[in-house]
Amino acid sequence: MKRGKPPVVRAATIKRGQQLTLTLHLTLMATLALNAMLAGAPWIIYLLTQLPLAILLPGVIGGGNRALIWLGFVLMLYLMIAVNSLAGASPVPLDWVELVLVVVLFTIAMRVARWRQTATIVDH
Q: Quick check: 60 and 25 in contact, CB under 8 A?
């Protein structure tokens, strides 16, 4: 298969993508905690929902490419959970918020990681 030229991406675009990734990451963590709180879940559920995202948080803050790639893998677990919650007997509106956050976060994180790997980054 023939490969084209790598895309040209502005450094500011990648920086905005990193900031948006961090914002969405924290928003997803807050949404998961709120959903668990409203459901009256025990503390272990809080721990299980927050721990995988919390482990990746330093790498996302630092802008590490590996952290973004691992975030993509971890988000697939959260996607399964969100879809399962929505398919259940009584989905709540926060389940929809979780699903949208997971999909948008995955898309942006993978786009930023891909740009860092292959794009020609320009400063203007």
A: yes
pTM of the full structure: 0.90
The answer as to whether 2 is a domain residue is no
- Residue 63 gets which letter from DSSP? T
Q: Which range of residues forms the domain containing residue 68?
A: 19-122
Instruction: Please count the residues of the chain.
Output: 124
Asked whether residue 10 is assigned to any structural domain, the reply reads: no
* pLDDT of 101 above 90: yes
Q: Is 41 a domain residue?
A: yes
Quote the strand ranges of the chain, DSSP E: 8-10, 120-122
Does residue 43 form part of some domain? yes
What is residue 92's three-state secondary structure? coil
Give the C-alpha distances (Å, rounded to integers) separating 45 from 1, 3, 50, 85, 116: 46, 46, 8, 15, 35
